[in-house]
């Protein structure tokens, strides 16, 4: 059963749909890279396969971070300054984690 | 070789389904399966599991976002806690006595499991009165419950205690290399008064960001082995998409029934680890 979404609600909160589209794109690209990599691996192409799989894993890794960036952009556009600030705090913490993480 | 690939892929699918339904990353299944079942080193298993957490979060989030089960405003508010917590966790990982942490987390989980058991039969909950922050930030929401066949409106309360718990759940994630959904769901469901399904979907949405910062470290160290992580992650991705669809049609009381033994098991496991190393 498909539930229809009321149009006025759609106009009020487009953020869910934008983020859903972004996450779907990220997971589809990652899944495609992984599937091709694994298929090549099974067929015995041991040179290219691990590279494709690693690329797929990296796309997957970047998707949630891009999701926060997209949310920040949407909140700034909507002049929702509270939430724009919150997204910025999250991004700073993730960036600091990457910076410190590399050094460990 | 091909058989091993297929088995790992199947484990991934199972972990993805369970993870998506319960709002967890599925690490609880993947780590024991890879270490005990395939004799893989712990580091390889934890690294693969961390990437799987991102896969569950991303795969399931699409369906939950479309069906408006995810509360994105609550998610962004609480992510401030989880991401700064994860940062702290990663930084102090070397200094903190892990035994104490294990026991503390175990006790917290046991308490959550007890709370969930106690409230298992409450179909209609006491009215949730939003606090000042929740009103200002308009954190309340609504979603269409396919199992109930009606729209569920809800309010959010205890916003600040929720944020503080998220900070500690983020710290646990950073320390232990997990998504810590097992702390996030009870924090929203039990403390902030959100419906279980909205809590689970929002937790799923949030854990990807926490896990991504942890996964970078594993990638940099070379712990992510493509031949192990590839099949399991692809499985989790597909399982999560399937699990998210299942979850929206399941009654919340049944999902809670699933969740309690997992909480109890993890609690015992954590306390045991802590006591064993004393």
TrEMBL record, chain A:
<keyword id="KW-0472">Membrane</keyword>
<keyword id="KW-0812">Transmembrane</keyword>
<feature type="transmembrane region" description="Helical">
    <location>
        <begin position="81"/>
        <end position="101"/>
    </location>
</feature>
<protein>
    <submittedName>
        <fullName>DUF1634 domain-containing protein</fullName>
    </submittedName>
</protein>
<dbReference type="Pfam" id="PF07843">
    <property type="entry name" value="DUF1634"/>
</dbReference>
<dbReference type="InterPro" id="IPR012861">
    <property type="entry name" value="DUF1634"/>
</dbReference>
<feature type="transmembrane region" description="Helical">
    <location>
        <begin position="55"/>
        <end position="75"/>
    </location>
</feature>
<keyword id="KW-1133">Transmembrane helix</keyword>
<feature type="transmembrane region" description="Helical">
    <location>
        <begin position="22"/>
        <end position="43"/>
    </location>
</feature>
TrEMBL record, chain B:
<keyword id="KW-0472">Membrane</keyword>
<feature type="transmembrane region" description="Helical">
    <location>
        <begin position="74"/>
        <end position="94"/>
    </location>
</feature>
<feature type="transmembrane region" description="Helical">
    <location>
        <begin position="203"/>
        <end position="220"/>
    </location>
</feature>
<feature type="transmembrane region" description="Helical">
    <location>
        <begin position="227"/>
        <end position="248"/>
    </location>
</feature>
<dbReference type="InterPro" id="IPR002781">
    <property type="entry name" value="TM_pro_TauE-like"/>
</dbReference>
<keyword id="KW-0812">Transmembrane</keyword>
<dbReference type="InterPro" id="IPR052017">
    <property type="entry name" value="TSUP"/>
</dbReference>
<dbReference type="Pfam" id="PF01925">
    <property type="entry name" value="TauE"/>
</dbReference>
<comment type="similarity">
    <text>Belongs to the 4-toluene sulfonate uptake permease (TSUP) (TC 2.A.102) family.</text>
</comment>
<keyword id="KW-1133">Transmembrane helix</keyword>
<keyword id="KW-1003">Cell membrane</keyword>
<protein>
    <recommendedName>
        <fullName>Probable membrane transporter protein</fullName>
    </recommendedName>
</protein>
<keyword id="KW-0813">Transport</keyword>
<feature type="transmembrane region" description="Helical">
    <location>
        <begin position="100"/>
        <end position="117"/>
    </location>
</feature>
<feature type="transmembrane region" description="Helical">
    <location>
        <begin position="7"/>
        <end position="34"/>
    </location>
</feature>
<feature type="transmembrane region" description="Helical">
    <location>
        <begin position="160"/>
        <end position="183"/>
    </location>
</feature>
<feature type="transmembrane region" description="Helical">
    <location>
        <begin position="46"/>
        <end position="65"/>
    </location>
</feature>
């Amino acid at each position: 059963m498909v539930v229809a979404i009321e149009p006025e609600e759609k106009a009020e909160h487009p953020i869910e749909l934008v983020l859903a589209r972004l996450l779907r794109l990220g997971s589809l690209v990652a899944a495609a890279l992984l599937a091709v990599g694994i298929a090549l691996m099974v067929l015995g192409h041991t040179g290219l396969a691990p590279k494709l799989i690693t690329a797929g894993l990296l796309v997957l890794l970047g998707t949630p971070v891009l999701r926060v960036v997209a949310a920040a952009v949407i909140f700034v556009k909507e002049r929702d300054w509270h939430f724009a600030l919150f997204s910025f705090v999250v991004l700073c913490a993730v960036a600091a984690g990457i910076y410190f993480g590399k050094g460990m | 070789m091909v058989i091993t690939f297929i088995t790992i892929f199947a484990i991934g699918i199972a972990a993805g389904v369970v993870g998506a339904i319960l709002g967890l990353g599925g690490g609880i299944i993947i780590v024991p399966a890879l270490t005990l079942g395939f004799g893989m080193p712990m580091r390889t298993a934890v690294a693969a599991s961390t990437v799987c957490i991102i896969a569950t979060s991303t795969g399931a989030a699409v369906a939950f976002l479309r069906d408006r089960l995810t509360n994105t405003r609550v998610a962004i508010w609480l992510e401030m806690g989880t991401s700064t917590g994860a940062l702290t966790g990663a930084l102090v990982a070397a200094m903190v006595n892990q035994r104490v942490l294990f026991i503390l987390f175990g006790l917290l989980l046991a308490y959550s499991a007890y709370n969930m058991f106690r409230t298992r039969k409450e179909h209609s909950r006491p009215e949730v009165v939003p606090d000042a922050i929740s009103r200002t930030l308009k954190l309340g929401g609504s979603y269409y419950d396919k199992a109930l066949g009606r729209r569920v409106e809800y309010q959010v309360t205890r916003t600040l205690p929720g944020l503080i718990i998220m900070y500690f759940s983020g710290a646990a994630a950073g320390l232990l290399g997990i998504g810590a959904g097992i702390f996030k769901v009870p924090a929203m469901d039990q403390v902030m008064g959100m419906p279980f399904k909205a809590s689970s979907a929002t937790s799923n949405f949030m854990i990807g960001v926490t896990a991504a910062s942890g996964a970078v470290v594993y990638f940099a160290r070379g712990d992510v082995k493509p031949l192990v992580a590839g099949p399991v992650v692809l499985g989790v991705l597909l399982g999560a998409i399937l699990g998210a669809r299942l979850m929206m049609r399941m009654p919340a009381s049944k999902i809670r029934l699933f969740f309690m033994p997992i909480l109890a098991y993890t609690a015992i496991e954590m306390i045991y680890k802590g006591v064993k190393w004393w």
